[in-house]
Specification:
Elements: H1 2-19, H2 25-36, H3 43-59, H4 71-90
Helix pairs in contact: 1-2, 1-4, 2-3, 3-4
């Protein structure tokens, strides 16, 4: 299980780098999509993550926050997803 938790830590580090502007969104999204496939999580986690990443990709089309594509809210949702995934992995 350590490998899965290490992968999740790498994912959250990448998210933080993206939020700080040190990593392009497309690179963060690509890594999250790739790494998430190796996590032993229920299918619903994958469904939620795919939806969030799709929405982040779409939000990149807007130069400013819009009511339906708040990048801050989407990044906050990714953090929440990661916290729930970490809890699930630690308890399984």
């Amino acid at each position: 299980m350590n490998a899965a938790l290490d992968t999740l830590t790498r994912m959250t580090d990448t998210l933080a780098a993206c939020q700080q502007g040190a990593l392009p969104q497309i690179d963060m999204i690509r890594q999250w999509r790739s790494d998430a496939t190796s996590l032993p999580l229920p299918d619903k986690f994958g469904d939620v993550l795919a939806n969030l990443l799709d929405r982040i990709e779409a939000s990149a089309l807007f130069s400013e926050e819009s009511c339906s594509f708040s990048q801050k809210d989407l990044f906050d949702s990714l953090h929440l997803w990661a916290n729930k995934a970490r809890s699930r992995l630690a308890n399984s």
